[in-house]
Amino acid sequence: MTLSEEAEARLADIVELQPTKNKALQERWGMESGSDVHQYLESELKEYYYRDENSLIRATAEARAVVTGEKPESFAVHMTDFERHVFAVAPGPDEESASVVNVLHRLREEYGDDLENDDGEDPGAKDVRRALQSLKRKGVVELIYRTVPTFRLAVERDAVTVDEVD
């Protein structure tokens, strides 16, 4: 996706200000409302940002690469506790991808009865799917279509530093 000069500049603002809110971007960009910011993000920068569990706006790994002009050897990604667990057991980039159910089984095997989703409950396939999709948006997991959708890491595990919760 090719970005306009304005979109690249605004993407740089997101990278610089993250984690941020609509209000901060509204002021930076001189927009009338937070709704205008949201509309712009969704229409122009949808592939380059995500909202964390506190609805704060964060840049994807791809966004940081676009802004800096180079793909970093390592980068920081914000993850919830449950996403950290999913990331830890997901197949690596050189391994065969795994289904949501397979990742759930890996989680239970690795963490046993101590495993909880972000709501403090016993996780199910829906929670794993949500975490994998979130990690995909953040640029650290890729989706591979086989008989069923499957996932694996898009980067080496040690290339990712998990941001501490703000």
Automatic annotation (TrEMBL):
InterPro entries: DUF5797 (IPR043815). Pfam families: DUF5797 (PF19110). This is DUF5797 family protein.
